[in-house]
## 1
Amino acid sequence: MAESLKRRGAIVRAPENFLSGDQIAAVGAGRRDFLRQAMIAAAAVGAGAAMPARAAEASAGDPDILNLPPWSTTLGKPVASTPYGSPSKFETNLVRRESPGLTRVGASSVSFAPLQGLFGIITPSGLHFERHHQGWQDVDPARHRLMINGLVGTPKVYTMDDLMRLPSVSRIHFIECGANSGMEWGNVAVPTVQYTHGMLSCSEFTGVPLSVLLEDCGYERSDGHYVLAEGADGSSMTRTIPIDNALDDVIVAYGQNGEMLRPENGYPLRLVVPGVQGVSWVKWLRRIEIGDQPYGTKDESLHYVDLMPDGTHRQYSSIQEAKSVITTPSGGQQLVGQGYYTVTGLAWSGRGAIRRVDVSADGGRNWRRAKLETPVLSKALTRFNIDWEWDGAPAILQSRAIDDTGYVQPTMPQLRAVRGSKSIYHNNAIQSWAVAPSGEVSNVQVG
Amino acid sequence: MSRLVKRGALAIGLAAAAVSPLLGAPNLGRPATPAEIAAWDIDVRPDFKGLPAGSGSVMQGQDIWEAQCESCHGTFGESNEWFTPLAGGTTAADQKTGHVKSLAGPDVPQRTTLMKLSTVSTLFDYIRRAMPWTAPKSLSDDEVYAVTAYVLYLNDVVDDAFVLDQDTIREVQGRLPNRNGMSRKHGLWLASGKPDTANKACMRNCGDEANVTSSLPDYARDAHGNLADQNRTFGPVRGVQTVAPAPATDAATASSPAASALLLAQDNGCTGCHGVDEQILGPSFREVAKRYEGKPESIGKLTRTILQGGSGNWGEMPMPAQDHLDDAQADALAQWILDGAQ
């Protein structure tokens, strides 16, 4: 394990490091070879078990119909055999995973959600992506407190008992790390949608609107213009949030998808800052301070600052602009044969609701409008799908989101023209997946 | 009722209000005491609001650095082992302009902390709240001043006789190599901000034929493991086989004591500090095995060290007690390590 990680780590260390110019040149030169090998591998797969339903035996029919399986002929398990249910034993492939070589230690790292196998818009809580800066903690709710201080009438302390008695809301919102797709600014670096886009999740969050708490502490609009949120873990993560944003739709949340937050997601209390990058959604939230200036904390001065070609960093970059990605079929997948497919994916915008998603199968020359599955909610993931007949020819699949401000998701060259390729954060470019004649789908960039 | 409550009520949903009108302030929670606020409100702002009294010299900072920081960040703050380097990469000219020149252009080197730092409060505030990484908030304010001074010294922002305190920190601000390097002129701070790209939703015959400009190199094909194992085995797609199938392992080895001991070590955070073959904060497990080779009686001592922690056997860094383990688990781990951590 250690050995293979080391070797992999040497390949792409991202997001601060990218493939070298030489390596990229090698990619260009070796591409044909690469495709041929992919096809050989695919042919091997085709000969094996991965292709569609086993051919019916001789004449009689499908043995899976003719011979009754054990689950049809035996007694099943009793209720509550697993008091907190778990997924089927056949679902072990879809789990959170780290991207080898991305970070150096597990307690300051990322695990990515397996978007390639998820349906609809809600991320199962156990598959929600993780990003911790100083490990995760399982905080005792009876000993957890929320303090509100700074420019408020009365600084106050709340217990979980207090907070859970206050008026609550439940809302569905996406959360995306500002560094999602950050490895791909310079070139293709990772193979699948889990690693390109998996710092993305969407849940129903339940909690108290921050505006209700600030009102309860006697906050007056004229007093302070910035909110500082702080966590109770070792990192005591802090982030500044402008007051307009904070009063608009920010929630001090304890619930996630009908249960309490998971410890990795901030149990028992986290901030939900719709539309804004994940780092501001402070976990294990212990304190809210109101001030008249931004706070310049480590994760808004040294990180989560976007390097521009002129050498300045954009500070307090927060909003996640409209973005979309096709999740099936996507990189690292193999189509099971020619014919009909439903191409499906996710679209979202930090500025509102998704108005439209278009899909192209020819690398962006021609587009068709996809169906949006309901619900279509503001600052939430929206699921889209569209039918597609694959005739075995090479194709390049793309999706393009348009939000209700009219903003159209940009191409990678458009983004690079403004921001260069070193900014790490806020890459919302159109994603391209190449489908080879073998049916293998791979991550590519087009220009 | 103030404007704020109206907004709150709106957010909660007027339907609920129609059933039971808001009764007024909920009157939950209680006032925070000054001592409570002092205990938690430790943030220091760029204008130095919140900066505590105290002082510390570069010389004092060096002692703290060597004892509590160097093991992860390197002697000169150059280490890449745990995190990106803290110091280095700036010039005397950068200190004059307040812009780190090498950040511009396509060939930016790996960025160190001091290449990005624009407000010295950030460094002080962060060390005070979060470092050392495994024992955050353990430093006194004077110690934070001292070790902050030392990090600045490592980057030539101050000299070796410098003493950092509430006054001198203001001078330091004026010398930071990247103090003028941040911009808020962009559309991503507020929801109402203006985007910096303007794509058009063209539908037919848009632009030129797509040209593939980048794809994953063949040598990186298996860098993320076997993608076949990261997808379902039914449905419209399979994961691509990127790794040759492993020879079938028989059930016995999969659940062998050795395999489960490695899992136990991973689950209990041991492998954050010990590699099987590689020294991290503590010695590699194989090194430990080598030292105690032929001394099976050391099992008791190792079990005790695992449960209670230990120090001085391998270096400066102590091993914290692992008392979340029960005796049997500690014993199994010690036995596995003694057996060579196979």
Note: Chain B has three domains: 2-40, 55-173, 226-231+249-338.
## 2
Amino acid sequence: MGVTTSPDGIKEIRTPLSDADVESLRAGDRVRITGVLYTARDAAHGRLDRLIEKGERLPFDPRGQIIYYTGPSPARPGDVVGSIGPTTASRMDKFTPALLRLGLKGTIGKGYRSQAVKDALRQHRGVYFGAIGGAGAVLSQFVKKLSIVAYEDLGTEAIRRLEVESFPAIVVNDCHGGDLYQDGAKAYAREGA
Amino acid sequence: MRDVHVSAITDAVKKLCIEANLDLEPDMLRAFDGALRQERSPAGKQVLQILKQNAEMARTRRIPYCQDTGFVVCFVELGQEIHVTGGGLDDAINEGVRQGYREGYLRASIVRSPFDRVNTGDNTPAVIHADVVPGATLRILVMAKGGGCENRSKYRMLTPAEGVPGVKEWIIECVKTAGPDACPPLILGVGVGGTFEKSAILSKKALFRELGSPNPDPTLDALEKELLDRANRLGIGPQGYGGDTTAFGIHILTYPCHITSLPVAVTIECHAHRHKKVTL
Ligand code: SF4
């Protein structure tokens, strides 16, 4: 199993993820991810999508993997990476269902997903995690290794392979239709808004 | 006339760009503490604590608070008795941005054209708004404006008949649609009045007021407080995980407007509210 629960109630995730791992996660679960994440944002998704359309091989095998929507700031000499928080996920909505169809299991970002993505999460057993947007300095500590996989010409938007240890996130959309943003806002909404 | 050499402007802008991204202003740190005292949601509290820690880590480790180190938006108040020497004002500002983003290990996030989208590599150019004002000082206000929140900024032309109630509903609507996409807790800069472009510029300028300080106009101050209270009843909370801290502040600036118009522009700003200023 790639998912176990720690005594502090936080779920420990090891990549790659299986369907059963994804099914065990519920919206609102706090998680720590250890293993590999691939970074990709707008421009890289555009290129991946063109490869998928043409039926060509992607620069990494998406099966069981997690894509982290981020474009890090440059590393200072001696550091693994600069600041590395999530970017807004909805800009990738257009591309996500096709990647889930190819076996991608997770994405990490911030903000709402489209209904099409939520449907694809159910259909292909996928999960959308939220990382804290704007906490890029803190999140950089969990990245232990970094290498460029493809599209170096895109600078910050290149696809990078990250090795992470205990990277903190929360399940926003699970594969059962659960949605943390809806539940959270409902629980704390007060009269007079 | 007082001479100011462009190199002084470049040096100042460079310093402001780096410091804005690494050293969050005290008004933001106070906002985190204030929110932590009131937030009921455990997930929300945890987010606020991590953001405080993030600010501390940015300051001590000299790593940007957020990886999106922003679009540099610069308001220049140029005293009419100042003579800028040695080159152009805009060039001097852009050179400061270039040096600051390179030397500060800040991210280059600007593409040279919205169509071909090739990165300029040094985060230039800045967006510069210059006003000529009386006096012999040069004031530069710099904001590193995040893209994720900027993308949720909105504009609407209301009718005079929609009036204050219409303006209020529209602002609350903007908070709802921004939601978790814009990294709440949010700060809203609101420009009401003027023309289409005037209201938008005011909405940016409004963000430079110190967070937690009252609006100098008592009527607007009451309006801001009412709207902030309403925004924080929506339940969106820090990062949208649910909670009481959806916004830290709503700042309004107004301008006279045409008898037919009621323009309202809302700039959505995130908790990575990076603003600095200097007077030369
Ligand atoms: S919205 Fe602000 S905090 Fe969030 S990623 Fe963008 S700049 Fe950073």
Note: Residues 2-188 of chain A form a domain with the fumarase fold (CATH 3.20.130.10).
